[in-house]
Every structure is written in structure tokens, then in C-alpha cells.
Amino acid sequence: MKIRLALAYIGVVLVWTTTPLAIKWSSLGVSFVFGATARMTTGLTCLLLLLLLLRRRLPLNRLALLTYLAVAIQLYGSMLITYWSAQFVPSGWISVIFGLSPFMTAFMAAAYLKERSLGWGKLFAYSLGVGGLVVMFSSALELDEMALQGVIGVLVATFIHAASAVWVKQIDARLSALQLVTGGLLISVPLYFCTWYWLDDGILPETIPEQTLYSIAYLGVVATTLGFALYYFILNNMQATNVAMMNLMTPIMSLLLGYSVNHEPLTVKTIAGTALIMCALLIYEIVNRRQQRNGG
Q: How far apart are CA 244 and CA 246, in angstroms?
């Protein structure tokens, strides 16, 4: 189980590293709503085919339906806001701001899941991480007004993402990752189509650039189908705060990817913030292992 969890953890980190840039590219030449709707529809199609091949059923009891709703809040609410915000901020910043998730998750998990995740050592690590993130996205204030709105949008999306993760853990329906994501998409995809019809009148774009098409396909097949399945597999087998620590690893990799592939700025502030985040990760791991050795 430990090896499977480690591989799943690495997989999610790699998918989340590439997802922000793919989100930005998936809306080139088309509306952000179309990009999001096409991605989620592709993902749902892949997951339903996978369920058929594996001959799995979706449980429809009360706990299962509540869990699907909790997942749908993340898949629809958090992701739609992220797609809107991606129009105005560099792709690397999406991952950077999502790095605040452990801080939000820690307090919610302590309050609602009774997880012992808020010792002084961890609080210090979270504070360092938040400080690093503040340094990194403070440069967004130097951009235009829409960039600032984009930052606020991603912050809201991050809070929804963290709340959804804690709610899934709280319900504890013991569903497989495949069932979780499929059930969540069955609720969220109709909402995406309604939003697309409301904002874009449901009109298909006349032409879709190749880069956009490939990005949508990657997001639908890999990021949604594989990425979310691995994420919820990890979420079911780890403390919520340990899961959220992935959000302090992916900013560094996403920023480097955006800089090297999409020519996004990498400033002194960004490097300083990255250093603070790495320190936060190191302190968190040391404190976490010490707590585990002492029996939590």
C-alpha cells in the first residue's frame, strides 16, 4: 500500500504541475467555459467507459450521494473559478496560490475531522509557507486590475477545494477513487453545460486551435480521469493535511514549467518565496515524522 500511495502521490504532483499551463492553453481561441466544459465531458466519458470495462457500479446510498455532491463542489465550483481566473494570471501563479490549501485544510480538518494537525511546529511551517506565497504573488499587485481579480478568484477556488477535501473525509463513505470522481462529474457536467449555455448560448467555436485541442484532451483524459482518481485515492488513505501538502510542492515546479515553456516571469520575489516554501515543507516533514514516532 505504501508503494502504491507513493506512486499515486508522485503522479498527482506531476499532473498538478502541468495542469495550470494546460488550463491556460485550453482556453486559447475559445471561451474559458467551453474549455472547462469540454475537459469535464471528456473526463466523464473516459470514466464511464472505465466503469463499464471494470464492471463497477456507482453506489446510490445516502452517504455515497453526499460524497458525490462534495466532490462536485470541487469539480464545478473550484475548477470553474480557476478557469475564469487563468485568463488574467500567469499559469504558475495558479499553483502558487493553491499552495495556501494546507493552511486552510489544517484548520478545517482540526475543527471537523479532529485530526491532530495543528501543533506549534506545523503552525510555524504553515506560517512560513504562507509567507512564501505572499512574497510570490505580491508581484501580481504590480500587474493590472484584472490580474488582481484573478488572484482573488484563485484564492476563492482554493478555499472551495480545501473545504471539499475535508467534507469528503468527514463523510467517509469508503468509495473507490473511480466512483468518487465519476459520481462527482455526473453532477458537475450538467452544471457545466448549463453555465456554457447561459454564458456562451451553447454556441460551438468555429475553429479550435491545435494547441487548445491537445490541452483539452490532456486535461480530460489525463488530468481529470487519472489525476482526480489518484487524488481521491490518496485522500481516502492519508490525512487531509498530508494530501494538501502537495500544494506546496507543485508551485515550484509549475513556476519553472511556465517560465521555461510559456516564457512567464520568474522574479527575485518568486525565488525568495520558493525558498520559504521549501523550508516550510522540510519543517512540516520533520515535525510530522516526530509526531508519528510519538504516537501522533
A: 5
